[in-house]
Amino acid sequence: MKINLASSEKFRNRHISPSENELQEMLNTIGVDSLDTLIDETIPSTIRLKQPLQLPKPLSENLFLKSFKATIGKNQIFKSYIGLGYYDTLVPGVIQRNILENPGWYTAYTPYQAEIAQGRLEALINFQTMVSELTGMELANASLLDEGTAAAEAMTMLYAAKARSKKKATTFYVDEKVFEQTKEILKTRATPIGITLKIGPLSDLDLSDPELFGILIQYPNSDGEIINYESLVNAAKEGHVSTAFSTDLLSLTLLKPPGEMGADVVIGSTQRFGVPMGFGGPHAAFFATKESFKRQIPGRIIGVSVDKSGKNAYRMALQTREQHIKRERATSNICTAQVLLAVMAGMYAVYHGPKGLKAIASRTHGLAVMTAKWLSEIGFEQVNKAYFDTIRIKVDQVQKEKIRAFAVSKKLNFRYDEGHILLSFDQAKTRQDVVEIFEVFAKSTNKLQPEVPEIPSQIDATIPSELERKSKFLEHEVFQKYHSEHEMLRYLKKLENKDLSLVHSMISLGSCTMKLNATTEMIPITWPEIGQLHPFAPQDQAAGYYEMFQDLRNWLSEITGFSDTSLQPNSGAQGEYAGLMVIRAYHQSRNEDFRNVVLIPSSAHGTNPASAVMAGMKVVIVPCDEKGNIDVDAFKEKAATYKDQLSALMVTYPSTHGVFEEAIKEICDLVHEYGGQVYMDGANMNAQVGLTSPGLIGADVCHLNLHKTFCIPHGGGGPGMGPICVAKHLVPFLPGNPYVKTGGTAAITPISAAPFGSSSILPIPYAYIAMMGEEGLSKATKIAILNANYIKTRLGADFPILYTGANGRAAHEMILDCREFKAYGVEVEDIAKRLMDYGFHAPTVSFPVPGTLMVEPTESESKDELDRFCEAMIAIRQEIREIEEGKADKLVNVLKNAPHTASSIISDSWDMPYSREKAAYPLPFVKENKFWPAVGRIDAAYGDRNLMCSCIPTSDFENE
Questions:
Q1: Which residues of the chain have pLDDT under 70?
Q2: Residue 754 carries which DSSP code?
Q3: pLDDT tens for each residue of 398-415
Q4: What is the pTM of this model?
Q5: In angstroms, what CA-CA distances link 939 with 24, 313, 314, 488, 897?
Q6: What angle do CA 784, 790, 792 make, to 5 degrees?
Q7: DSSP structure class, residue 96
Q8: Could you tell me how many helices (H) and strands (E) the chain has, helices first?
Q9: Please, is 916 exposed, middle or buried when counting C-beta atoms within 10 Å of its C-beta (0-12, 13-18, 19+)?
Q10: Nearest 10 degrees: CA dihedral of 175, 176, 181, 183?
Q11: Is the Cα torsion angle 397, 403, 404, 405 positive or negative in sign?
Q12: What gap in Å lies between CA 625 and CA 804, rounded to an integer?
C-alpha cells in the first residue's frame, strides 16, 4: 500500500453535503448524465466564464486558523479612550458562549414564522423594553444597523411626518457637536431626497425659520459635555419643529432621559452593552419614538398577540413597517436589523439588571471624575462644565505631541482635537488605568515627576442635579431575576429551545440562502485581535485587519469580475443604496445630473425600488412575461422612452423567479447604449460564483449579501453585510469616511458609520473563500443548482413549478405554485404552518408571487435532508388532496389547525376529526427528532389592533 503524505482534509468536502454516490443518485432522478450537463442546460453559454477564478489554493481548516492567527496577530490592541460612540465593554461569558458562539442563536432566520421563533421574539421584546425605558420614550423598534444610519432614519421619518404647518419645510438642523460620522451619513441621505442640511452651533439655531422641520442633538455631545435641552425642546414644539436626540444608553442610567425633555425621537448604539467594538461592527442601533409615530417608525417592531387558543404570543407587529414592502412608495429601505447583537445587548441588561447597569455607569463616570481631578492637580484644565464619561483636557500643540508619544509607548489611544485631548472611559477601565494616564500626562510637564495621588475607593459624582435621572427603569421582573450565571444560562437555553434554526433542519428560504456557517469560519470572530479594536484607531495598529480587507476586496472583485470593492455597506439594502449613490456620483461627474430614472423589473426585491427612491431616483417598473423573464419588448419600449433620463437598470440575476434569463446581455447592452448603468442585485450570487459573473454579464456594479452566498450567519435577522463591487469607471466614487481614508479619489460621503462596515464578521467570508478555493466555490454553485433541480423533479408532480429556464431547469431556487389550492380553502400560509409540524421552517411565502412558496436548498444540505423535506411537502399535498376529495373537513383539518403544540396534543379534550398522531407525527422521521412549536397559530390581526411592544408580566403566561 502506498501512502500519500501530501493528502489533507478538504474543507469543501465538509461544506458541500452530497457525497459522490448521492450526487449520482440525484442526477439519475433529474435525468441527466452528469453535473456538467445539468449546468450547461441551466446557465446560458454566452455568459459562462472562459477560465477558472484566479484565487489562492485552498487551505485546510487547521492551516487556515494558523495562517489567519498570524495575519490578524499583526493587529495591536491598545487601550482605547477614543469614544465617539465606540467603547470597550466586558462581554459576559454566559452571553458570549450561549448566544454569540451558539449556532442555536446565530443560524436562525428572521422571525416571520413566529410560532417557531418565540425565544428570539421574547429576547427582542426585552431589547425594546430596555430601549424605551432608558430613553423615556413610548415605543422602540427591534434594532437598526448603526448609530449614523439610525440618525438618518430619524431625519427621514420626521421629514415624512411633518406637521401640516410645516408641509413645505425642508431644513433639518444638526448640532455641530454631533459625531462626525453621523453628520457625514446625514449628508449622504439628505441631498437626494431634497432635505436641506444645516450644521452649526445650537446658538445659531433659528426656531422661527418656516423652512425648519427638525433638529438633531447629541447627548452627551461629541466633546463629552452634557447640557439640559428641555427649554430648547419646548420652544421647538411651539414652532412645530421636531427634535431627535442621539444618545448613549449607559449614560441614561444616570442622566435625565431625552424622553423626559420632550424628545420626538431618540437614537443611538447599544454597542457598549456587551458587544465588542470589532473595528466598527456589527452593533445594534436603537430607535425610540412616541406612539404617535408608530405607523412611520422604520424597521421591525415586535409586539404581543395571542394564538388560536388565546395564549399570549410574540410576533413581528405591523409587518408593513418594513417599508420595502411599499416598494417605490417607501421612505426607508430597512430590511436587515442587527438581531443577534440586539439579543446580546438586551441580555446584557437582563443579566446586570438596573442596579448593575447603574453601577457600571457610575464607576465609568467616577473614573472620568478621578482623572479630571488628578490632572488638574498637575496643571491640566478639564473644560467640560458637566460630563458623563468623557473629559476634555486643554493642551498646547507641544504638550499634545509629547503626550501622544508617551501614550503610544504605553499602548494607549487618546482622542486628539485642536487644542484638546479627550478621554472617554468605559466598563473595561480600572483605577489603575487612571494611574497610567496620570503618569503619561505628568511625564509631559516640565516639573519633577509628580507623586501619584492615593487611589480613592469612592469619589463624588459631578453630574448637575437638574440632569440627574430621577425616574426608575427596567422594573419588569425579567430584569430582576436572572443575575446569577446559572439562572441566566437556563433562561437563555429556555428561549433557544423555542426557536427552530439550522441546528434542527433545512431552512429552504428562496432568495435568502440559508447555508452552513462553518465552525472554523466562526471561531476568529471572538478573538481579542478582532473584537477589541476601535474603528478609528490609527491604521498602523490594524495591519492585520487591513491585510484581510485587501485580500477580501481582491477576491470578491475577482469573483464578480469587477475592478474594486467597498466593504463599507453593512446590509444588503445598504449595498443597493451605495451602488445607486455611486452611479449617481458618476453621472454627476459627467454633468448628467438629469439622469434620474431607474428601470426595475416587477419581480425585483422590494428593497430595490425603496433604495432607488432614497437615492433620489424615479422608479419605472418593467413587467415580466408569462415565463417570469423580463418582458424584453416592454423593456425596450421603456428604455427608449426614458433614454435621455436613464440612470440605471436594477436587475437580479438569476432572476427572483429562479431563472437564468437568456436575454440578459442584450438588456445590459441596451442600457449602456442609452447612457445608463447596470446595477445587479447580488442576492442570487450563490448561482453565479465560479460559473459566471456580473462583470462578464455586463453589469457595472453589484452588491453581495455576505450573509447569504458567503456564509455570514443570518443571526435571526442580522448581522448582514452588503459590500459593493464596481467596474473601473466607478472605482473613484466608492464611499469614504471622515476619520479613516477609504474609498475612491472622488469618494461619496459615507453609507455606514464605520469605514469598513461590520469589520469583525468579515473573517467569516474570508475564511470561506480561503478554505474553499476556486474549485470548491465552483463546485458549491453547481451543487446548489443540482439540489434545487432535484427538489424540482421530486415535487413537480404534486406542485406546479411556476417558472423554468429555456431547457426546463431551475437555477438555485424555484417557485412552487400553491394558488390552485385556494379552491379547497387552503392558503399558502396553511402549508407554511403545517410544515412546522414536520419540523421544517417554511420556504419564502408569497414572494415574488402571492400564493406561492420559493424554495432554495443550498449546497450544504445532504440528500437525506432534501428527501425529508420533499417527503414532508408530498405528505402535505396528500393532506390537501384529502380536503379536495371530501375525506377531510374544509374548515377543521390538520392544515387549518397547524401548527400543533405539545399542550394541544396532550390535552384531555381532543375533539379533532383526525388523530393526535396525524397532527404531531405525520411521518416516521418526525418521531425521531420532534420539534414542538412553542405556541399555536398566532392571530396577527389581534396583535395589530392591540399594539403592545414591551415586556408583559410572566404571570400573564402562568395564568394560562
A1: 318-330, 943, 945-960
A2: S
A3: 999 999 999 999 999 999
A4: 0.96
A5: 45, 9, 10, 30, 12
A6: 105
A7: I
A8: 31, 24
A9: middle
A10: 50
A11: positive
A12: 12
